[in-house]
């Protein structure tokens, strides 16, 4: 197996009395899209900012491309960072902002091309103070992908974006991944992580509680069959909530077959029938419970 | 560094408020002093006017503008953005402070040249220049330290007052009353020795040892800045 792009070993972060990150260990492999998810205040931004080199670890080790992330000259030319909050000067134009930050990354690229990728070409001469929230997010993304870095951090990249901008951002990310870029993502939109992440780390109260592929995470919880309540008695154990009958099962195919056979034999219509694996949302709820 | 400096220069000229406080105000005050130099020379000396011009530019054009700029760049997370690139901390600070420093040096140079033409050539130009450079270094260092205690550009209007008013008061006190009494105190106060050096250098010749207290203040200011300076807003 190839050497990891990011290695985090027993990372601890404390702010005074507050223990924000506890014994966090994980790896991100080349070409992977790794999503670090968590509840509010789970410590994911603290963890991410330590990996990015913005924060000092209280204890533990963090390596990015085998280097200390604080060694900016060694590490930063190979990575792009999209911060959670924009930090641009209101008195500079979009083009000037991308030019400046692009130059400072020490990578080569064409500012016009980058603006085109994020759909800000028409806003090139506009002052940052006159951009909408979504446009600022796209500007942030532009500076992160300038020069197509090997490693890209996306901290809540789609917050405040409309659906078109969100789709086009993910298209750009797909193209970066075709070129071999590694992506580290945090997001509150769990379906984005569910659809795109190769692996997910789930943090809760400073601790990495679960890690694995989407399948590995959702398989630990039962699948669900749902339909409008009414028909009785059912051939399977079920619960009823707000007029919906729910059957939890670890053998979705078999139990669905049993249920459908029973409905067919008894001439019962199962209205609003749906069946599917657990979503990440459920994995989250289970962690908080 | 020059990429950051260039973008700072653009921002200074786009932001009229900064332009007025950093460029127009000190020039206007200096022009007044030069225009009425005969009256002010009777209170102190021609050298006193040179010192006041230097500290007006240093306190308002340089120090206050630098603190306001740093607080503003931190508040809107621009500092954090710059630190997300391959640029090192010193490069970032140097780039941010270079334009306002160069503008102040040019201002002092031009104003004192005009003053020299109007009132007569100063006694010792190299020593005058040395005092100016040391003063500018001290004001930059104090700006970095003060920026650490300043949360926002609005807050800077308060936090910069003690030092900006203080150094001008010291320059006036030393420039008008001389250093024959309370010599040690006057020389040790920030700007005191620099004022004495400028006054003496303009009126005739000065002692190079007078540079020492100012350079000591540079060291103190940089040490304070290293402890106090913050890159991200307090949460």
TrEMBL record, chain A:
It is found in: Cell membrane. The keyword ATP-binding applies. Keywords: Antibiotic resistance, ATP-binding, Nucleotide-binding, Transport. It is a peripheral membrane protein. InterPro entries: AAA+_ATPase, ABC_transporter-like_ATP-bd, ABC_transporter-like_CS, ABC_transporter_ATP-binding, P-loop_NTPase. Residues 6-230 form the ABC transporter domain. One of its GO terms (molecular function) is ATP binding. It comes from Paractinoplanes pyxinae. Pfam families: ABC_tran. This is ABC transporter ATP-binding protein. Its main location: membrane.
Automatic annotation (TrEMBL), chain B:
The chain crosses the membrane at residues 16-35, 47-71, 92-119, 125-146, 158-176, 206-229. Signal peptide: none annotated. Keywords: Membrane, Transmembrane, Transmembrane helix. It comes from the Bacteria. This is ABC transporter permease.
